[in-house]
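We emphasize that the prediction below concerns an isolated chain of 334 residues; any contacts that depend on oligomerization or on bound cofactors are therefore not represented. The input was used exactly as deposited, without trimming of termini.
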Amino acid sequence: MLRKTAHWILLWGLFFLICFGLGYPSLNRYDPRLVPGLSDSNEYYELVGGNPQAATGHFRYRVLIPYLAKPFYWLAKGQVGTWNPVFFGFLVANAMFTATSACMLVFLGYTAVGDYAVALLGAMLYLVNFNVPNTFLGAGAVDSGESCLMLATTWAMATARWSLLPFLGVVGALAKETFVPFSIVFCMTWLVMLTRQEGYRLSQLASVIVMGVAGLTTVTVLQSTISGHIIWPWDIALAENSNVSFSSMLDEPTMVHSFIYVFGWLLPLGAWHLMRLPQPWVVASLAASLTAFALGVWVGSLGGVPRAIFNVAGPLLALSAASLLMKIKILDSR
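Result of the prediction step, given as a token string:
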């Protein structure tokens, strides 16, 4: 047991250092707030180093990563030379979540395919995907929290730790409000697949329902507290609705660019071996990805959809791609 714990600590530390290196440019080589397409960074920056009330819209409610970054910002302020202390705080917080995601992917990968090399390669492919160094680690954003908590939800479902789901619903809602619909659809779809294989259990359904209620309650309380008046979940949904036509959304250049950057190699390689992975995970990821697309249509912008889909399905595709690449290696060695 001690050796196993030491192994995971070593692996997490390695992944953390890799993540810190991937996100290093944000410390003093460029300012994410000045980069076109990274306007979110301005809002999250205010939550850490500026006036939190200056943050606008839904950005001000995504508090998990910014408030975890605050202590590291306070420690770094005036102590890190030319490094931006706010982005240092963000990088440490995001590296912690991303390293945890990589460790969980190794565990899930080994459990799914029984090959440590495939699991480790899957985690590495996940870390070098465009989205991780450029969004999770190098943009002062909060997506690492949502991605990590989706993986934690996958781990809880895969290991039958149903009692953890309500807790994950609360923490995920603090990370990003979109985690709530993603996780509800993900868990309900997984449960349907599991019911077909093993039969129906009321306790499992109850855990998923409580998770959804906990997430929605957290979003309601958080947004109402910060705004100073009651905001119900349906108020949030109606406020985000847009009258933009679907055809005009398809003309967004950022959607095409984002999709190519994130899935240009991940989807072709990852699609091949999906049938070799646990089907509840595969189908649940597909359902959550469709939910991400539907939310993009609802808010009138598809530019952020590839990033959201990566948060729910990227780890699975990375693991599937690793399985394919290791299969090719084995065939070539014969």
